[in-house]
Amino acid sequence: MKAISIENISKKYILSHKKKKYQNLKESVSGFFGELFTSKDEEETKEVFWALRNVSFDIEQGDRIGIVGSNGAGKSTLLKILSRITEPTSGQVKVNGRMASLLEVGTGFHPELTGRENIFLNGSILGMKQQEIKGQFDEIVSFAGIEKFLDTPVKRYSSGMYVRLGFAIAAHLEPEILIVDEVLAVGDSEFQKKCLGKMKDVSSSGRTILFVSHNSTAIQGLCNKAAFLQKGNLVKYGEVGEVLHDYMTSISKFQLQQNWETPENAPGNDKVRIKNIEIVPEFINANKNIDVRTPLKINIEFWNMLESAHLNLSIFLYNMTGECVFNVGSQAKTFSKGLITALLEIPANFLNDGSYYISVMIVKDTADPIYFMEDAISFDVADWREGTNWYGKWPGAVRPINISVKTWKVDGLI
Amino acid sequence: MERNEVLIKAGKSALNYWREVWRQRELFWILGKRDVMVRYKQSVLGIAWALIRTLLTTLVMAFAFGKIAKLDQTTSIPYILVVIPGVIIWLFFSQCLLQISYSIVGNGNLVSKVYFPRIIIPFSSFLVGLLDAIIAIIFFFVVCIYYQFSPNWHVIFAPVFLLLTYLGAFGAGLFAATLNVKYRDIGQIIPFVVQFGYFISPVAYSIEEYKTKWWYPIYNLNPVAGTVDGMRWCLLGDFAEFNWQSFIPMLIFVTISVLFSIWFFRKNENSFVDHL
Predict the structure, then answer these.
(1) What pLDDT does residue B3 have?
(2) CA–CA separation, B80 and B59 (whole Å)
(3) Domains along the sequence of chain A with CATH
């Protein structure tokens, strides 16, 4: 059965471009008269901005849908329409079942009231009856971990406690459809782990979840389907793996290969000219994205115009902050004139997730750089997690998970 | 748990709206209770403030209008007894008006993040004022005992006039609240109106001898005039006549303003989020 049926939803905003941002009563009234007499120069320009355009898709009961898109794609607007915070300009949505949305944690919390009072207030605002809240009260308190602070005003809570309490209340709402908007963006990793765990529980009991996040790993872990929005349009809706692939492709700037046919238009100088630089990922298991498990081959071909030169190649790998992750070089060999090939193999499970670019230097006599090509190719490495419920950013320039840490027990010591 | 299908589309669905208001009626109490609790948190005197406010207003008025302006010569019963019903109504009306007109903007964080029928917000913001009014009425009875004055059976109508006062404040306040979301000037105008409204309402004085003047009917368009006169009739028994001339206009004003402002509110409700 369809839980939510979205049909051709559009939302339009009218942006006016005037000097003054505020509109007050006087301006409106005088503007009305002014329009009768005004000359063209004084007219304000109005721009129509479509936050959403003809978005349609259906959600079955029990689906877990991830909604992805860059900032400004219309994700939050769609959630607001579903939550009935704002009206669509056209189109309609049919919703079957009780729906609760968590657009912000701690909605309605009043800083002067205690934790206990706020639980009843927030729960009621979110749609729970007083009886229901009483029934779930103890569970909410233990999930949030604030037993000691129940009777202190919420303004005294740390931000972590605040957010845990807000989520705890929402998590116990027991609606048929739960809408969650980027609440994982706040809170520490422990909290995020709890949230995702709870959402998994909620979904395994047959409830429908709509989840907006920028954290693709979390979406991959939790959702079965995804919707990709871009500039108000629904670009793709379907299996989470496919949609995420399209999403990642669209946001990554990459250049996986550059090549030139003839030395004349190739980059270089009178000594060497680059013919081809490419990165070839060895995809495993029909995976289409480069992720941390993908071994990478970097092929470089260049023309050597020197008669007999003692050359080696030096390859630099930079991450997006400009830090050099590593610099490796080939053994210097003597080459005669002609086409020379180099191969660098980066093993699987070595690089961390992130964006990288490669620069190449050709060196003569082991100390004399004769050509340097910066930013020759760039690529993204996506994250992949297995066997863990933690979805934070894995630190480190590299992630050599095959270098193992051994642990064992030493007896007899206190 | 209800298994209902909800249809979301552009354009109003009035029938479901009021059903939803009923379904979420608990929220009405919760928000009202919240306002009351918040007001008296971290205050030492707590609810005593309501009493102090009424007492001080009455005393100041009795002094300024009674002694200085010598209005206390015009009444047959102790002047202070004439003043108190006016004070009760006025404080209730002005508090409600102020609270209601600011309610939507003040609860902006709720409006922009959660769905519930928005009209519950202004509806619930009168509980704070009501509490004060009840305490003020008790105060009146205490003063009556002091002056050995006993009100008669008219007293049972006191809640009626309180309700009418509330509706008068609601009618004006709801309209102001809706306007205030888009045009924040209203937030400045209302306190100002309350300030001078105080003087053109028969709070401190009784307007009886001016009934024949030409401007009297216009004066009675002020709903506070009607409710103050009514409250006086309730609490002062035979010493105050039931003034039909102020009662009828007040009823008309209240009915029209409430219906109009509810319509205006509903019309603009869905665009609140875009202006908050």
Answers:
(1) 45
(2) 8
(3) 2-22+44-250 (3.40.50.300), 257-381 (2.70.50.60)
Q: Which residue of A has its CA nearest to B184?
A: A24
Distance of CA B88 to the CA centre of its chain: 10
Note which residues in 54-73 of chain B have CB less than 8 A from chain A. Answer: none
pLDDT at B73: 66
Residue B209 has pLDDT above 70, yes or no: no
- Per cent of chain A over pLDDT 70 is 90
| Least Cα separation, residue A202 to chain B (angstroms) | 17
Could you state, in order of their start, the residue ranges of all structural domains in chain B?
43-269
Instruction: Please give the ipTM for the structure prediction.
Output: 0.74
Q: Is B185 exposed, middle or buried (0-12, 13-18, 19+ CB in 10 A)?
A: middle
Element (H, E) at A59: strand A45-60
Closest partner residue to B185 among A24, A82, A87, by Cβ? A24
β-bridge pairing A368-381 and A354-364: antiparallel
Q: Are the C-beta atoms of residues A269 and A371 closer than 8 Å to each other?
A: yes
Q: Which residues 163-222 of chain B have a CB within 8 Å of chain A?
A: 179, 182-186
Q: Which residues of B touch A85 (CB under 8 A)?
A: 111-115, 273
Q: What are phi and psi of B224, to 5 degrees?
A: -65, -35
**Numbered residues of chain A with Cβ closer than 8 Å to any chain B Cβ:** 13, 22-26, 28, 80-99, 101, 103-104, 107-108, 110, 112-113, 117, 120-121, 124-127, 129-130, 153
Q: CA-nearest residue of chain B to A96?
A: B5
Higher pLDDT pick, A176 / B12 = A176
- A322: which DSSP letter? S
Number of H helices, E strands in chain A: 8, 16
The Cα–Cα gap between A320 and B165 comes to 66
Tally of CB atoms within 10 A around A296: 19
Residues A225-242 have a mean pLDDT of 89
Q: Which residues of A touch B10 (CB under 8 A)?
A: 87-92
Q: From residue B179, give the alpha-carbon distance in Å to each of A23, A369, B184, B257, B267.
A: 12, 72, 8, 14, 12
Tokens representing residue B21 in the block: 């208001």
d(CA B167, CA B187): 20
- Tell whether B42 lies on the interface with A, counting CB pairs under 8 A: yes
Q: Global pTM?
A: 0.67
Beta-strand ranges (E) seen in chain B are 5-9
Candidates A56, A61, A89, A110: best to mutate against B (most CBs of B within 10 A) is: A110
Q: Give dist(CA B223, CA B96) in Å, integer.
A: 14
- Asked if A278 and A256 touch (Cβ cutoff 8 Å), the reply is yes
Q: In the predicted model, what is the mean pLDDT of chain A?
A: 83
Q: How far is A42 from chain B (nearest CA, A)?
A: 22
Question: How many C-beta atoms surround the C-beta of residue A96 within 10 A?
Answer: 19
Least confident of A176-180, A381-385, B43-47, B271-275: B43-47
